[in-house]
Design brief:
Largest sheet: 9 strands, mixed
Radius of gyration: 19 Å
Bound molecules: zinc ion
Helix content: 10-25%
Number of helices: 10
Strand content: 15-25%
Strand order of the largest sheet: 6-5-4-3-2-1-17-18-19
Order of helices and strands: HHHEEEHEHHEHEEEEEEHEEHEHEEEEE
Shape: globular
C-alpha cells in the first residue's frame, strides 16, 4: 500500500466525520506536508501542485483553489444560514476546508455574481476566515422587480456592508483582465454580461457545435453577468463560468470558440438546463467535469447527456446525487460525494500538476482517481 493511499483513507475518515469534526481535529496539512511529499509517482511532474476543493454548499458554489506556496483563491461562498447563526452551515464548511488546506487567510475571494447561493455566505465566512481582496463584476444589476430579485438585493447589500467595514482591497474586473494571482494564470472571460472580444491562445477555431446548439434568451438576471474564469496552471486548464447562462455562452463560443479545450470543467450553474449548451461543452471537451449540484438543484438530465456525450470526457463527478434525475443520468456512486439521505457535507478534492495530469478524491470514500496528462 502506498503511503498516499493511507493518507487518502485518513482524509476520508476525517471528512466522513463532517466539518465540525474536521475543525476540531486539528488536522493540518500545509503546502509542504501531507500528500504532496509522499506521492512519489508525481515527483516527476514538476514543482508544486494545485489543490481545488469543491465545498458542499448544497447546490450553491464555493470552490477553494490553493496554489503552491499556499496562495489561495476562493470562488463564491454558498448561502447565508439564518437558522444557525452561531455555526452557519456553508460558512462553517468553507472554514473547515480552509483549515484542512492550511489556509489561514483567503488571499482572493471572487464573487461571480450576487445570487444568494454564491454571495449569501460571505458575511458569515468573513467572520471566520480573513480575506485579503474581494473581486467582483461591479454593480448589482438585478432589482427587486425581477422574479427572485429581493434576496439578490439583500445579498448585495450585505456584501457592500462587508466591503465598507473591511480593510480588504476591492477589485472590479472585466473580461480580458487577469487576476492578481501569482502561481496560476486566471483570465476573466465573462463579466457583467460581456465576454472577451478576442479568443484566448487556446481558442480561435470555428465551432462546429454551434449549428446544432439551440438558441435561448438571456435571463435578465445576475446569472447572465457571472464572472467567468479561464484558469491555467502549467498545462492544466480549468474553466469556471459561475452561473453564466446558455445565451451568454453563445457569445463566448459562436461562431468562433474563444476558449479552446480544457481539462476540467466546473459545470456551469450547478447543471441546470439554462446553462451548459452543446456549443460550450462540445467545444471545450473537458476530460473531467465536476458538478456542484444539490440533492434537488441542478443535475438536469439534459445536462448529463451533453457532458457525457462530449468527446474527451473520462469522468463526471457530482457533489450530490441528483434526486430529480434517474439512475441512468446520475453517475456511478463512486463518483458522487454525497448520496441521498442524511447530508454529510462531503467535499470533492482535485489535485492538479503542471504537466496537465490531475486526480480527484471523493471525500466520502477516500478513493482517488488519477487522470494522466493527455
Ligand atoms: Zn447558483
Amino acid at each position: 500500500m502506498r503511503i498516499g493511499k493511507m493518507w487518502s483513507v485518513g482524509l476520508a475518515a476525517l471528512l466522513a466525520l463532517g466539518p465540525v469534526a474536521l475543525a476540531q481535529s486539528g488536522y493540518h496539512r500545509g503546502p509542504t506536508s501531507g500528500a504532496q511529499g509522499v506521492r512519489r509517482g508525481h515527483m516527476q511532474r514538476g514543482r508544486g501542485e494545485l489543490k481545488v476543493y469543491f465545498v458542499d454548499v448544497e447546490g450553491g458554489q464555493s470552490t477553494l483553489f490553493v496554489m503552491p506556496g499556499g496562495e489561495s483563491l476562493l470562488v463564491d461562498t454558498g448561502s447565508a444560514d439564518t437558522k444557525s447563526t452561531a455555526a452557519p452551515r456553508d460558512a462553517t464548511r468553507i472554514a473547515a476546508v480552509c483549515k484542512l488546506a492550511g489556509v489561514t487567510k483567503i488571499d482572493n475571494l471572487v464573487v461571480t455574481h450576487y445570487h444568494s447561493d454564491h454571495v449569501g455566505g460571505l458575511p458569515q465566512l468573513v467572520g471566520m476566515v480573513p480575506v485579503g481582496r474581494f473581486i467582483d463584476h461591479g454593480e448589482n444589476r438585478e432589482g427587486e422587480e425581477v422574479q427572485g430579485g429581493a434576496p439578490t438585493v439583500a445579498g448585495w447589500n450585505a456584501y457592500q456592508k462587508v466591503l465598507t467595514e473591511s480593510h480588504a482591497e476591492h477589485l472590479v474586473v472585466k473580461p480580458g483582465d487577469v487576476l492578481p494571482v501569482r502561481a496560476m494564470r486566471v483570465k476573466v472571460v465573462s463579466g457583467d454580461g460581456e465576454v472577451i472580444a478576442r479568443p484566448l491562445a487556446a481558442g480561435g477555431e470555428q465551432n462546429a457545435a454551434c449549428a446544432a446548439s439551440a438558441l435561448k434568451d438571456a435571463e435578465g438576471t445576475e446569472n447572465d453577468r457571472s464572472l467567468g474564469l479561464a484558469i491555467t496552471f502549467g498545462k492544466l486548464r480549468i474553466l469556471d463560468l459561475g452561473d453564466l447562462t446558455w445565451a451568454k455562452e453563445r457569445a463566448l463560443m459562436c461562431p468562433v470558440d474563444k476558449l479552446g479545450k480544457v481539462d476540467v470543467y466546473i459545470v456551469s450553474h450547478h447543471g441546470l438546463v439554462n446553462s451548459g449548451s452543446p456549443a460550450l461543452v462540445d467545444a471545450i471537451a473537458p476530460r473531467v467535469a465536476i458538478m456542484d449540484n444539490g440533492p434537488r438543484k441542478g443535475g438536469a438530465p439534459a445536462t448529463f447527456d451533453t457532458i457525457e456525450g462530449s468527446s474527451r470526457l473520462k469522468d463526471l463527478w457530482q457533489l450530490h446525487t441528483a434526486e430529480g434525475s434517474d439512475a441512468k443520468h446520475n453517475v456511478a456512486q463512486s463518483r458522487i460525494a454525497n448520496l441521498a439521505g442524511p447530508d454529510a457535507g462531503n467535499t470533492l478534492e482535485l489535485t492538479g500538476w503542471l504537466d496537465g495530469s490531475l486526480s480527484v478524491t471523493n471525500g466520502r470514500t477516500g478513493e482517488t482517481v488519477e487522470y494522466p496528462a493527455p
